[in-house]
Amino acid sequence: MKKHVPLEKQQKRAQREHALSQRGDWGSVKPVLRVVESKKKYSRVRRKEADRAERGE
Predict the structure, then answer these.
(1) d(Cα 18, Cα 12) in Å, to the nearest integer?
(2) What digits encode the pLDDT tens for the residues 6-43?
(3) How far apart are CA 50 and CA 42, in angstroms?
(4) CB atoms within 10 A of CB 15
(5) Longest dimension (CA), the chain
(6) Where residue 51 falls among pLDDT bands split at 50, 70, 90?
């Protein structure tokens, strides 16, 4: 049976392996800052959609 050695007293390599085993992945979440674009800003796409909606397309 292995003795328990505190993490601080383990070798750096063993500490790194332990840290890697504790980390998970982001899964389907993308860690990118999501910024909502201002509605006041001119957008051709939004303008086209509004024109199409007015015409009833």
Answers:
(1) 10
(2) 999 999 999 999 999 999 888 888 888 888 888 889 99
(3) 12
(4) 13
(5) 78
(6) very high
The pLDDT of residue 57 is above 80: no
For residues 6 and 14, give the distance between their C-alpha atoms in angstroms, rounded to a whole number.
11
Q: Which residue has the tokens 């303008």?
A: 47
d(C-alpha 4, C-alpha 14), whole Å: 13
What's this model's pTM, rounded to 2 decimal places? Answer: 0.42
Structural contact between residues 52 and 44, judged by C-beta atoms closer than 8 angstroms:
no
Helix or strand (DSSP H, E) at 21: helix 12-22
